[in-house]
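A reminder from the course coordinator: this example appears on the midterm review sheet, so study it carefully.

Given structure:
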């Protein structure tokens, strides 16, 4: 089965994306918190729209995902920056069954969230066709690179049932390939240089012998 490599964003692109929502208006504050939360935790879209107010502890910077995909429960952590956004949002959010909700307290819609991130991406100058899952992939690839390729821990964070799913990030990270090739090139070219130096030395010796004759 052919593996499709997902689109990811650079850290700079993610920062530009999260900068787009206006946190001084209710929907902008909520949307900025959503984007930052996914970038910090690798949450799925379903985790976002189903998160209950009682399952997030902003002081501990932790959210508990109950009955997630494959009925897996897992804990998601987030940064102090995101905690501040979530704190502000919590104080202003309308009462509702779900933590991230509409202005009337209803459940967020997947289509709305998709259109939301596409709108912000356009403002940020990102031309790739992306969705919220792109942020999840971007988080996962960055974590994989920065954690010394810790697939086991990444699998737990992402909530993958099979580690084969997590292995896609091995194919996306070319760091080890580049390092290996650079070492190979240096070793190969060093040998070639030594051979060339020897040939040049022999040619000089032959030239000297001819002159003596």
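Designed residues:
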């Amino acid at each position: 089965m052919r593996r499709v490599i997902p689109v990811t964003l650079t850290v700079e692109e993610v920062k530009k994306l999260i900068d787009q929502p206006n946190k001084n208006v209710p929907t902008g504050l909520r949307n900025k918190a959503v984007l930052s939360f996914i970038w910090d935790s690798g949450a799925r879209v379903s985790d976002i729209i189903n998160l209950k107010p009682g399952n997030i502890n902003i002081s501990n910077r932790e959210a508990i995902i109950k009955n997630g995909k494959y009925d897996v429960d897992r804990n998601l952590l987030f940064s102090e920056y995101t905690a501040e956004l979530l704190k502000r949002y919590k104080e202003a959010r309308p009462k509702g069954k779900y933590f991230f909700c509409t202005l009337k307290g209803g459940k967020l819609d997947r289509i709305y969230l998709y259109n939301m991130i596409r709108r912000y991406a356009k403002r940020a100058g990102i031309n790739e066709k992306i969705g919220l899952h792109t942020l999840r992939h971007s988080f996962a690839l960055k974590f994989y690179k920065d954690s010394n390729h810790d697939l086991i821990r990444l699998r737990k964070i992402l909530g993958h049932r099979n580690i084969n799913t997590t292995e896609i990030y091995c194919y996306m990270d070319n760091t080890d390939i580049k390092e290996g090739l650079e070492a190979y090139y240096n070793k190969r070219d060093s040998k070639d240089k030594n051979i060339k130096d020897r040939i040049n030395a022999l040619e000089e010796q032959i030239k000297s012998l001819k002159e003596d004759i």
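The first helix runs from residue 11 to 19. The chain has a mean pLDDT of 87.
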